Amino acid sequence: MMTSPTASAPFSKAVVNAMRKLYPEALADKSWDNTGLLLESPFDPLRRQMNSVLLTVDLTKAVADEAIERNDSVIVAYHPIIFRGLKSITLANSQQQSLLRLAAEGISVYSPHSAIDAAPGGLGDWLADIITGEPATAPEEGAMITDETSSKSSKPSTPQPPEDDPFLEPKRPIYLLQHHPSTANLQDGDLKLASTAHTRHPIRPLDLPAHPGAGMGRIVRFSKPQSLPSLIERIGRGLGNPKGFPIAIPQGKQISDMSISSVGICAGSGGDLLSGLDVDLLFTGEMSHHEALAAIEKGQCVVTLFHSNSERGFLHSVMRQQLLEAVKAEWEVVRKEEREREGVGEEVLEALEDGYVGVEVSERDRDPYGIVVSKVYD
Predict the structure, then answer these.
(1) What is the pLDDT of residue 299?
(2) Domain annotation covers residue 353
(3) Count of structural domains within the chain
(4) 147 belongs to an annotated ligand binding site
(5) Do 299 and 330 share a structural domain?
(6) Cα separation values, 236 from 127, 283, 301, 346, Å
(7) Distance of alpha carbon 276 from alpha carbon 167, whole angstroms
(8) Is 253 helix (H, G, I), strand (E, B) or coil?
């Protein structure tokens, strides 16, 4: 008895084609990165997946569960779940376990990673659009950005009871864990992107005539200096108003003192790429203690967002709609080509009748780090 040839689902081919056109693998830094189709699951016509894609930054167990529950065909995971060569694939490793489960369910995995970073209009440009944006609405009443010293001095002093008063219970802080806002809560209209006059160019340009403007990182130079508080507000609005994010400024300075004429930008971990740049502000996902210390000693400011919080909003704000349109177009091409191919089985023809296409952003993907906020209750 002859067995039918093993192949991936026609819809999965359409998704891969769309990703390769939007973010060509030639843009990725193959010297260290691992991009492209990382898991190609075979097509099982008896258990066909939905024509849907799930976008995520990290492919965790929670995201794998989500894709299986949703019956998706493809997970597009920004970070590659396979970085180095594997000598075995077993259930003992949590990431390999997710891959095995996804393969068993017929779900494929594609990772674009640094191809998105380098692409014109990609992740680097999105962060540059935020830093050069302007608020679309007035700030909420009472909202302001201040230095700790000035905020303390502006508060009226309240008499405090003696610490040893036996009749009063001391107020105890309650620590609440706050994670970065869900991408579903991002308000795209809260910031007019790229509306402040500036120039920009890649930090590390790529010599690819077919992709002008491609390269790793971005340097933004404003036509007029911008106050640091105004840039902090733009970052907050562009990223869904998180409860807080780390900032480093030179000792002896206050946030209100800092005037910014230039910004170095790198999504994710920017220590290496941003090192040695002659700019006023370094804007990235994360930097090491010593990298940040070296920057402020040179008079620079640093804003970090936690690694994947500098990347996740792009999936919702840009990539979801972009990929939806591209996959719809590619799905029509694949359907036509498959129908014209000789020897196509009834099960495949049935799959080709389904014109639905869906792209959604994971609701369970999040950075491992949150911020613990202290609140004192009476």
Answers:
(1) 97
(2) yes
(3) 2
(4) no
(5) no
(6) 12, 13, 16, 52
(7) 59
(8) coil
**Residue 233 structural domain:** 123-135+181-307
Q: What are phi and psi of 350, to 5 degrees?
A: -65, -40
b/e per residue 70-103 (b: at least 16 CB within 10 A): bebbbbbbbbbbbeeeeeeeeeeeebbebbbbbb
Q: pTM surpassing 0.90?
A: no
Average pLDDT over residues 156-176: 61
**Nearest CA among 255, 270, 353 for reference residue 305:** 270
pLDDT, tens digit (0-9, with 9 covering 90-100), for 71-118 = 999 999 999 999 988 889 999 999 999 999 999 999 999 999 999 999
297-306 pLDDT, tens digit per residue, is 999 999 999 8
Residue-wise pLDDT for 2-32, tens only, equals 445 678 899 999 999 999 999 999 999 999 9
Q: Is 311 labelled a binding residue?
A: yes
End-to-end CA distance of the chain: 77
130 and 78, same structural domain?
no
Two tokens at 311? 């990347």
- Residue 297: give its domain's CATH number: 3.40.1390.30
* DSSP at 301: E
Is 113 annotated in a binding site? The answer is no
Residue 198 labelled as part of a binding site = no
